[in-house]
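Quick one: structure for this chain?
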Amino acid sequence: MPDPLQELGNTFFALQSQINMLSQACQTQAQRDALSAQYEKAGQNYWTCVNKAFHDDDPQVVSLTSQIGMANQQLSKAVQQIGDIAKTITDITKVVTLGEQLASKVITI
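Got it. Here's what it folds into:
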C-alpha cells in the first residue's frame, strides 16, 4: 500500500517546487488567490500528518491514498502542459481536497 504521508508530501512538495511558475501562469488575481489557498492547504495537510500515524487497514485511508496518488499523476501532467491554468488549478484543488480528507483520518498517538 502506498504511504499516506508520502502521497501528501508528494502533493505539497510538487506544488512548492512549481509555485512560482504556476503563479506566473495565472491570468487573474482570483486564480493567484485560488492557487495560493490550495498551496497553503496542501502544506497544512502534510504538516498535520507529520509524526502521526494512520490505520493502514482503514478502507477509507487505503482508498484516499490511492486516489491521491492518481490525482498527483494528473497534477504532474497538468503542470507540464500548463496551457490551461484554470484546469490546472482545478486539478490542484481536487488533490488538495482529497488530502484534506486523508489528513482528517490521522490518529493521535
